[in-house]
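Re: the 109-residue chain
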Amino acid sequence: MAVIPCSLNTGFSSASSSGDADLTLLAEFQPPGGMQSFFETFCGMATEGRCNAEGGPPFLQVAASARTWDMYLAGPPVALQKIMFTALLPLAWLRGYRTAYDRFTQTPG
């Protein structure tokens, strides 16, 4: 088990050089915040083929979602991302991007 401080930038990827190895990750998020909605949205987009070749969501989708889920890209300073995503949010909405999508939401039961 590894405990990762919330202040640490993280990312997930397979270490396989060919990219064809499966990766299994068991994670617990405390507090969970918007993690379920985050994974529903981005996995749903990947299923629909709406992600890039590396499996990442469209940049405008990140701009539409980051502030609501309080999640940002690893690397660039968060303060800079907040400014940039705030400026891009109207464009993301005009292009049809939303924070989450009902078609991806899993209801318990």
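Helices lie at 35-47, 59-69, 78-94.
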